[in-house]
Fold this sequence. Notes:
The chain is mainly α. The protein has one domain (2-99). It has helices at residues 2-10, 46-60, 62-78. The two termini are 25 Å apart.
Amino acid sequence: MLSYVRNVCAHHSRLWNRTLTIKPILPRRPRNQWLVAGPPPQDDRLYIVLVIAAYLLDTIDPRAANTFKQELKALVHAYPTVPESVMDFPANWQQDPFWQ
């Protein structure tokens, strides 16, 4: 699934409002920190891919995960006209402990 998203980006296709055709299998009982608030994200939108990337980074290198999370927040903030809802970002997603 991550390679699919990488290929979408590498071929300059739009990703922000894309419905993903290859869907991830979400962990039932994650060993590390996972999303706390709200219903589970859709499995065919960008938000879940970003959550998985942050989760994997946090497992491998927590410092890199923190950098990724901060840069993602800055990127979303830099483009306020792009609606977060089409990427399945929940309201107040940045307040979830996962993104802290």
